[in-house]
């Protein structure tokens, strides 16, 4: 069976990510099928609303999408496979399509929602989370950065939550996601099948309206997050956290010490630049960044290839970051990431508006 199941049922165009053993991680073929489906339904009068979900190991919900296929990234980078560049160009084009989709688009963000899963859900008209939602942009853990428009949507979180979530890769639940403006509606997971069917029979009229919820742990730490993550540099942020007296500050400092020091600096710059960008410009910047992640240091020498090796290939969880310490990163190491390798008229995403 296909990894993407697309069907029209009643008034809804329904998309099911059907790669449960991989937690619905996106392949290039899946990205192409999603893009073709959304473009076809854009002008189809039968489709009033689009719904998207991910099949879990135990049923039709439970695992939305864990991100992109990082094992493919690793092998393609080492082999010099041009499909690696195609993957990101086409994924970011899909992200832009979702954000600007003219019909209501409801994302059932149940279970794991990370990386590429955020890319196909953050642009949704209705972002539905449950008590099982585990949401994150954890890319600094593999020597990458929060892409798929992460600079755009994280920089628009309240206060300095964007910097905090981008740098730490912290996993958050439903109440936190609503508090961070990364979700709109909390639904009990038992209620998902009924809502899925109602959207088919009633169409756009059944799309839930956003609502506030209680219980956000992020809200408890907002004053400290906003103060610390507004500091000008990664070094200053970590130093302030390490002098803190709370369990939260110590936990956060320890998490940052495990991430790629170089990419932490790149990510802080990314989020702060993106705050004044539109989505298309942010995606073009991220396409430049991801190119450099795999080409500034070719092959196994790059932070991203090393990070994936440690997490998913050898699974030793001991990445050899270069440089190894946050204090060793210089502005001269960060600056090349933000120089586009393409003239504007040849950029792979030049047609985004």
TrEMBL record:
Sorted keywords for this record are: Hydrolase, Isomerase
Q: Which SUPFAM superfamilies match?
A: ClpP/crotonase
Gene3D superfamilies (alphabetical): 2-enoyl-CoA Hydratase, Chain A, domain 1
Protein name, entry field:
Enoyl-CoA hydratase/isomerase family protein
The GO biological-process annotations, alphabetized, read as: L-valine catabolic process
Origin organism lineage: Bacteria, Pseudomonadati, Pseudomonadota, Betaproteobacteria, Burkholderiales
What PANTHER family does the database record attribute to this sequence?
3-HYDROXYISOBUTYRYL-COA HYDROLASE, 3-HYDROXYISOBUTYRYL-COA HYDROLASE-RELATED
Q: Is Transcription regulation one of the keywords? A: no
One Pfam family here: ECH_2
**Where in the numbering of this chain does the Enoyl-CoA hydratase/isomerase domain appear?**
13-338
Taxonomic source organism: Ramlibacter henchirensis
Determine if Nucleotide-binding is one of this entry's keywords: no
Q: Which GO terms describe its molecular function?
A: 3-hydroxyisobutyryl-CoA hydrolase activity; isomerase activity
| CDD domains in alphabetical order | crotonase-like (cd06558)
């Amino acid at each position: 069976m296909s990894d993407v199941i697309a069907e029209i049922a009643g008034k809804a165009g329904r998309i099911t990510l059907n790669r449960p053993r991989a937690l619905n991680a996106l392949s290039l073929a899946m990205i192409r099928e999603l893009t073709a489906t959304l473009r076809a339904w854009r002008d189809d009068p039968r489709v009033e609303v689009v719904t998207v979900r991910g099949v879990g190991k135990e049923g039709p919900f439970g695992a939305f999408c864990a991100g992109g296929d990082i094992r493919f990234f690793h092998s393609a980078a080492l082999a010099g496979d041009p499909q690696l560049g195609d993957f990101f160009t086409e994924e970011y084009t899909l992200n832009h399509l979702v954000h600007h989709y003219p019909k209501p688009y409801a994302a059932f963000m149940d279970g794991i929602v990370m990386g590429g899963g955020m890319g196909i859900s953050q642009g949704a008209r209705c972002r539905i989370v449950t008590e099982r939602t585990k949401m994150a942009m954890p890319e600094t853990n593999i020597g990458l950065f929060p892409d798929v428009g992460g600079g755009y949507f994280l920089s628009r979180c309240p206060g300095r939550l964007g910097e905090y979530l981008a740098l730490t890769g912290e996993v958050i639940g439903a109440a936190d996601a609503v508090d961070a403006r990364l979700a709109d509606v909390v639904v009990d997971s038992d209620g998902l099948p009924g809502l899925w069917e109602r959207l088919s029979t009633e169409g756009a009229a059944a799309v839930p309206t956003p609502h506030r919820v209680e219980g956000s742990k992020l809200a408890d730490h907002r004053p400290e997050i906003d103060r610390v993550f507004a500091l000008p540099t990664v070094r200053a942020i970590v130093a302030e956290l390490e002098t803190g007296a709370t369990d939260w500050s110590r936990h956060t400092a320890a998490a940052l010490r495990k991430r790629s020091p170089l990419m932490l600096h790149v990510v802080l710059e990314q989020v702060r630049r993106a705050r004044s960008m539109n989505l298309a410009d942010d995606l073009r910047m991220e396409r430049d960044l991801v190119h450099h992640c795999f080409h500034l240091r070719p092959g196994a020498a790059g932070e991203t290839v090393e990070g994936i090796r440690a997490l998913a290939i050898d699974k030793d969880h001991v990445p050899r970051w270069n440089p190894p310490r946050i204090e060793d990163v210089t502005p001269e190491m960060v600056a090349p990431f933000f120089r586009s390798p393409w003239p504007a008229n040849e950029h792979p995403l030049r047609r985004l508006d």
